Amino acid sequence: MKNVSTNHRRGLRMKRAQVLSLLILFGCHRAGGRSPSPGEPLDIAVGVPICADVTACERACRTGTSGACVEAGRLYEYGHVGPRDPGRAFTFYESSCDLENASGCFNAAILLELGRGVQRNARRAVALYQRVCHMGSRTGCTRAEELSASVRP
After folding, report:
1. Are 66 and 31 in contact (CB under 8 A)?
2. Cα three-residue angle 129-44-116, rounded to 5 degrees
3. Taking 90 as the threshold, does the pLDDT of residue 104 lie above it?
4. Crossing angle, helix 138-150 and helix 102-114, to 10 degrees?
5. What angle do CA 83, 89, 124 make, to 5 degrees?
6. Whose CA is closest to 67, among 32, 34, 27, 40?
7. Rounded to an integer, what distance in angstroms lies between the CA atom of residue 76 and that of residue 36?
8. What is the C-alpha to C-alpha distance for residues 42 and 48, in angstroms, rounded to an integer?
9. How far apart are CA 153 and CA 111, in angstroms?
């Protein structure tokens, strides 16, 4: 029985290391340009859980883990911790954006653009999309251009 759990843990470590290697290979890294250490949360837009629950996400967000802010935002936006609350999600996305997380900035821009949970503000959404663009997202650049074309001066 002990060998099964030891082998299982070894397999999980190996899978985590393989995923981490692929992410580094494809240029995903933590803010600040340094590569993540094994077991460290990644600031990328994938469905990899950053925290165990919303309370842990909120705590980690308050201490500056941008990926945890995004995760908390998603939990609230999609109603995984009760009724959907896009307004509260926006607050977490905005916090992650302040921490230079492109995914959080993009999500905040979408909520602003659509007026979901916050007052619709296309100009502010364009500014966030431009910020995401400067972080290296072509989609952010495209959305900034498309939306700014529809915003009156």
Report:
1. yes
2. 45
3. yes
4. 20
5. 135
6. 40
7. 27
8. 9
9. 21
Q: What is the pTM of this model?
A: 0.69
The full DSSP string for 9-52 is HHHHHHHHHHHHHHHHHTT---TTSPPPPTTPPP-SSSS---SS
Task: Report pLDDT for 151.
Answer: 82
* Tens-digit pLDDT profile for residues 25-60: 333 333 443 444 444 443 444 456 678 899 999 999
SS3 content of the chain, % helix, strand, coil (to 5): 65, 0, 35
Q: Which amino acid is located at 135 in the chain?
A: M
Rounded CA-CA distance 20/10 in Å is 15
Report CA-CA distances (Å) from 150 to 90, 98, 113, 145, 147: 23, 26, 11, 9, 5
For tokens 């500056």, name the residue: 64
Q: Which two tokens stand for residue 5?
A: 């759990």
User: Rounded to the nearest 5 degrees, what angle is found at the Cα of 58, between the Cα atoms of 129 and 64?
Assistant: 65
